């Protein structure tokens, strides 16, 4: 995996497909590609909410760059091109990967270029030995000759940054994804290992829109028009950290990978080409801050919200349950009228009741198993599910005395979309392939 002189290319996105073509040329991205190869593109299409409005900026890889990549592969003479993702699907985020592809216009790539669209969660999966454990990896990923990883430039509340290494988690089965969020808190370790066995030939970082306070729709997108590429997965993630203005030493899975391979985190040790980094870089804020007692976000202090204790999610909370956090935070803020009667909400696999709450909401089957018989719990509010449905979370909040205002929540979700409308640099057509694009 080590590369004597890893090359990273940076480029400002200006036009399709020329900007991507130049980015790839600058890092020699197609040097090892052969016309007979089967190529596989793995974008980031994490999950889609079809009940409430959801902005895609910085959350999904732009369809524009995926389209450009297909065009360039065809231009190179590649006949076997697949695009695959394993988008999270639950009771609420019920849209499958194929449904997301359809909504974005990917079937036009099937028609125009003969591309094969793949839902990685449909399997089959192959058990891959990572030394300390085995993970189920989607077989199409393992069978490809040329894996092109196309993550988005986004911050991530648990992993700090979600770039190339992190995007590979979408190649795993649901069972293996949950395993990565194990009780021992080994998420970062698992993320650092994925690339050892799921090794992209090329990683293209889509920073046309970066996302702060990510990884999902509650984050704030920044129009950056930035792209980076490398054949070296570590070099690419270091490039992404630099674009986001985040020290890679503060990103545990990147730091651990570099340490294990005795690689430098210093970008000056890598060869950089193309647009100067300083012209593209914008500092992205990582995450919401919790108060010192870890009883709730700092913002609640300003809003005067009292009587509810919501400790910050830890790394044992997997995507299904962590996706509910934003909803819970928003619901509480939207519905709050008077101090609550000391309720606490526990998530993940290892939180413990404080012993001070009058009601303890145990969210998800893991928390229920962990704490339902704990004598420190005075009155338990059970919210079953793996992950629980939004409906059962709302019922749980009601049982805690929080009178839910779904209309306010819906209006709030609309504001998340509206805040980009008419704003310079934001263009929804980056996400949709139309008849003429
Ligand atoms: S209940 Fe939540 S944290 Fe536990 S395995 Fe299911 S999704 Fe993950």
Terminal CA distance: 37 Å
- In DSSP terms (H or I, runs of 4 or more residues), the helix count works out at 17
The helical percent reads 25-40%
Identify the CATH class of the largest domain: Alpha Beta
- Main sheet makeup: 10 strands, mixed
Structural class: alpha/beta
Rg, Cα atoms, Å: 22 Å
CATH superfamily of the largest domain: LarA, N-terminal domain
CATH architecture of the largest domain: 3-Layer(aba) Sandwich
How many DSSP-defined strands? Answer: 16
Q: In what range is the share of β-strand residues? A: 15-25%
Question: Which shape, going by the Cα principal axes?
Answer: globular
Low-confidence spans: none
What is the CATH topology classification name of the largest domain? Rossmann fold
Compact overview of the structure:
By secondary structure, this protein is of the alpha/beta class.
Describe what you observe in this structure.
This protein is α/β, with parallel strands linked by helices. It folds into two domains: 7-286, LarA, N-terminal domain (Rossmann fold, 3-Layer(aba) Sandwich); 298-404. It has 17 helices and 16 strands. The chain has helices spanning 18-27, 63-76, 97-104, 107-113, 139-143, 164-167, 174-180, 187-197, 233-244, 252-260, 277-280, 298-303, 319-322, 325-335, 365-371, 390-399, 406-418; strands at 7-12, 38-43, 80-85, 116-119, 125-129, 134-138, 146-150, 152-156, 160-162, 202-212, 220-230, 271-274, 308-309, 343-346, 359-363, 380-383. α8 (187-197) packs across α10 (252-260). It binds iron/sulfur cluster. Iron/sulfur cluster binds next to α13 and α15.
């Amino acid at each position: 995996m080590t590369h004597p002189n890893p090359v990273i290319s940076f480029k400002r996105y200006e036009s399709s497909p020329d900007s991507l073509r130049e980015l790839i040329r600058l890092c020699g991205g197609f040097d090892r590609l052969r016309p007979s190869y089967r190529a596989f593109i793995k974008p980031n299409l994490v999950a889609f909410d079809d009940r409430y409005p959801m902005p895609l900026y910085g959350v999904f890889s732009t369809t524009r760059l995926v389209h450009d990549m297909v065009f360039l592969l065809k231009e190179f003479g590649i006949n076997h091109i697949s695009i695959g993702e394993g988008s999270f699907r639950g009771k609420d985020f019920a849209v499958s990967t194929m449904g997301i592809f359809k909504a974005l216009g990917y079937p036009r790539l099937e028609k125009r270029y003969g591309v094969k669209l793949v839902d990685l969660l449909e399997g089959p999966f192959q058990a891959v030995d990572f030394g300390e454990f085995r993970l189920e990896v989607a077989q199409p990923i393992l069978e490809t000759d040329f894996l092109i990883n196309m993550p988005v430039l986004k911050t991530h509340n648990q992993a700090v940054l979600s770039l190339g290494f992190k995007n590979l988690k979408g190649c795993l089965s649901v069972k293996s994804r949950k395993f990565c969020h194990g009780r021992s808190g080994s998420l970062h370790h698992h993320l650092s290992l994925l690339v050892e066995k799921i090794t992209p030939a090329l990683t293209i970082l889509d920073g046309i829109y970066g996302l702060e306070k990510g990884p999902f729709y509650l984050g704030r997108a920044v129009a950056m028009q930035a792209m980076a590429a490398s054949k070296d997965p570590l070099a690419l993630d270091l490039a992404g950290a630099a674009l986001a203005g985040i020290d890679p030493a503060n990103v545990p899975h990147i730091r651990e990978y570099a340490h294990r391979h005795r690689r430098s985190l210093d970008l000056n040790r890598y060869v950089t080409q193309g647009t100067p980094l300083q012209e593209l870089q914008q500092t992205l804020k990582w995450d919401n801050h919790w108060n010192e007692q870890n009883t709730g976000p700092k913002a609640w202090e300003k809003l005067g919200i009292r009587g509810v204790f919501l400790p910050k999610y830890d790394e044992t909370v997997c995507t299904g349950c962590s996706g509910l956090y934003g909803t819970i935070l928003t619901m509480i803020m939207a519905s709050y009228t008077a101090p609550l009667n000391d309720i606490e909400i526990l998530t993940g696999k290892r939180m413990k009741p404080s012993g001070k709450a009058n009601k303890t909401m145990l969210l998800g089957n893991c928390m229920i198993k962990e704490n339902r018989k704990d004598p420190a719990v005075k009155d338990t509010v059970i919210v079953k599910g793996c992950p629980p449905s939004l409906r059962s979370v709302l019922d749980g909040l009601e049982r805690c005395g929080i009178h839910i205002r779904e209309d306010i929540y819906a209006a709030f979700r609309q504001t998340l979309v509206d805040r980009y409308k008419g704003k310079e640099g934001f263009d929804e057509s980056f996400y949709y392939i139309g008849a003429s694009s």
